[in-house]
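Case study 2.
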Amino acid sequence: MQLSPDAATRIETVEMHTGGEPVRIVTSGYPAIAGATLLDKRRFARENLDRFRSLIMFEPRGHYDMYGVLPVEPDHPEADMAVLFIHNEGYSTMCGHATIALGRYAFDRGLIKAEGEIARLNLQCPCGLVRVKVALEGGAPAGVSFVSVPAFAFALDRDVEVPGFGKVTLDIGYGGAFYAFLPAARFGLDVRKSPTRDLVDAADRVTKAVQAQVQLDHPDSPDLAFLYGTILTDGQTGATQDGASANICVFAEREVDRSPTGSGVTARIALAVARDPALASAHFIFESVTGSRFTGRVAEQTSAGRFAAIRAEVAGRAYYTGRSAFTVEPDDPLAGGFLLK
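Prediction:
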């Protein structure tokens, strides 16, 4: 049963961005989210509270590419904090840019304490426990890094029939969420120069084709086994000896990530190592459509069920942009929000 916002609704948020990608963190006013586990809470929010998600993600309070965080009670014994991630289509399982913002937010809110020149946050995400490190300079947060859940190559050189393009060869990687990866050049596009609309159209066609033709599975939970989006790249690995590698991530319902995409570059590192094990010792630099950068490296080699996997350490910076308080007037015909596609 879906509950609806009403005149008593007042949702307060802290606004941040990482690499230009928004992070709207709910601080009060959201209805209680029930569930024994975090994946149960994700399911409950989708089935019962989805109108509150659209209220703060959609216009006129948000926009097509808005992104948000719902702090909830953790159920993992090591977690300091647990969150659900929300966007224009629903609820993602992992978000690196939001995780970077949450590291700074948690320190500034006093949820974690300094240990010399660092502070540590154990963040429970729907994909699992993510370990976050906040670098401090003079006691103030500077860069933030996180060590991912096990990331792996699900498929290399998989052929998919994409309407309008025919057979296309791509990779599928998991970095807390599943993505399809391929160079933009396969569509005659350039991630640094081509119009964003053209890149989005191509990526969205790939996403829908893979969703229809490839059966995904994850060793931890069937709730994690869905394709979140497609990442078009410049064809490079991102290993520093080759220079920064640019990519654009198109996820959910044609939403464009302004950051390099933390879970996406995690999966890119896993794919790079699957192709060339020597890259397990490399350092990586990834660049987004805004020119913002994340760095990355392999923190650990591990496994995930039948898959050889790595844990990636990804780093970036987040910034505050303001605070908001969202209310509802009961006679407003557009109170529930809308999206213009």
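Residues 239 and 284 are 4 Å apart (CA to CA).
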